[in-house]
Design brief:
By secondary structure, the chain is mostly beta strands. It has an eight-stranded antiparallel β-barrel. The N and C termini lie far apart (57 Å).
Length: 145
């Protein structure tokens, strides 16, 4: 039963987190405001609400990875009229979160301000992406129907 399950209350630490196997590249956590802001590789950002506590029985893979039986953090956001949520487990040190979301098992790893700036600066300019192909605007190639 839920009452028998052990919930370790771990405190997430304010700051920047690198997304591993997530749809966003990083996340900035503001505990006082009860929110987090995603940063996508496209430059877009979205605000998420944070919720802590016993949030239900964790997925078997999360239990195996973290050793905790219950989720203790929920990230939620709205896409128009639809709410999207990911449940996770904050590790005891507050520096890592393991989640089960729309792309499977993913993680958040705390990083320094310098690491966050380097991650944000990494990438290709959208105006001139790097690619191994010769640019030939007059040669449209073959069209298949």
């Amino acid at each position: 039963t839920m009452a028998d399950m052990q919930v370790k209350s771990s405190t997430l630490i304010d700051g920047n987190y690198r997304g591993v196997n997530t749809w966003y590249s990083s996340l900035v956590v503001d505990l006082e405001g009860g929110k987090a802001v995603t940063k996508e590789s496209s430059g877009a950002s979205r605000e998420m609400k944070l919720e802590f506590g016993n949030l239900g029985e964790a997925d078997a893979e999360i239990v195996k990875t973290t050793g905790q039986n219950c989720y203790n953090i929920k990230f939620s956001m709205n896409f128009g009229e639809m709410e999207f949520a990911e449940l996770g487990v904050v590790r005891e040190d507050g520096l890592h979160v393991t989640m089960k979301g729309m792309v499977g098992i993913s993680m958040l790893e705390w990083m320094t301000e310098e690491e966050a700036a380097a991650l944000e600066a990494y990438g290709e300019p959208i105006e001139a992406p790097l690619c191994p192909y010769k640019i030939q605007p007059d040669n449209l190639g073959k069209f298949l129907w």
